[in-house]
Amino acid sequence: MPQRLSARQILDHLVSFPTVSRDSNLALVDWVEAYLNGWGVTAHRVYNADRTKAALYAHIGPEVAGGVILSGHSDVVPVDGQDWSSDPWVVTERDGRLYGRGTCDMKGFNALALAAVPLALEAGVKRPLQIALSYDEELGCIGAQPMIAAMAAGLPRAAAVVVGEPSQMKMVNGHKGGHGFRVQVEGFEVHSSLAHTGVSAIMEGAKLIDWANRRNAENAAARPTPLAAMFTPPWTTLHVGTIQGGSAENITARDCHFGFGFRVVPGEDPLEWVARLRDEAARLEAGMQAVRPEAGITLEEVYYVPPLVPEPAGAAEALVRRLTGDNGTMVVSYGTEAGQFQLEGYSAVVCGPGDIAQAHQPDEYLEISQFEAGWRFMQALVEDLAA
Ligand SMILES: [Zn+2]
Fold first, then answer.
1. Which of 115, 142, 147, 139 is nearest to 8 (CA)?
2. Which residue of 34, 209, 385, 386 has the lowest C-beta tally within 10 Å?
């Protein structure tokens, strides 16, 4: 028999790997794989292009459909410049809390899911438990999709997915989608006294940004659908968070680039918003090129987090309600990988220990009471799968 590790002991191991998104997560993946192998469970890896990171998934139980996927991300946000009272890579217990980077977001959930593996084996589950561990979630959910596709293609189809992002163990069945672009505006430099013969990338970029302002005003003034009304604010928002450009006061700017993001309410098609952005960029570009043919606007997709659309009578929602007794309805303002599972045809919800308010913070912590509630959830899940 392999040595039995408690969820808390597993958490100590997971937190000790500084899996900041910019760095490799392979040491953590090696550890998880060895742990699973110790229980006779095969782990499958899905590498990134340069094989510096991997997602991992596993199947526990009979080769039948109808199981449950527990999904988490292995990466964490950096601690650079943050003031920590204790080593962020060591779980430190004080005041009924477990301090450490990732305890809340979301290695606490991952530890609970991994601790449930021997439980599921011993209970002789009749429906399988599947584990999914992604990377690069904190960079805009860019690492999970190939893993989800591999699971959909290679494993018996699970009936429900629980993404364990911190929700205080409440059932969350919806969030907005996120879609980010890098907009590159190429102008033509002339002395600003002759601005009509050049193209200012800044002035043209400003037109595209003002287009976003006008859409925001329009969206805010429109009457929300019942689905959109669940969200705060109940409309799709467009936002520019960073901008750079220009070289001097008296020169039309040759370059202007900015980060452009959508937060799309479920029920609206994110791709339609992209098409509208592209149309507007093309319209502006035509005007720029009428002055200087080398001018232009290019859009580069940086991330896409599909919305999580509440499913009427969804299997994942029913499961989590059964296990937690939570009869409320909650949506959240942050994006998760649950929408990506949904796009692959899975029924998915978010439910995990901890409060998102503690995520990404210095002195990030998970309440021990939340960790214990998470463990009760895992026990109830295994019982459910064994029934
Ligand atoms: Zn997270």
1. 115
2. 34
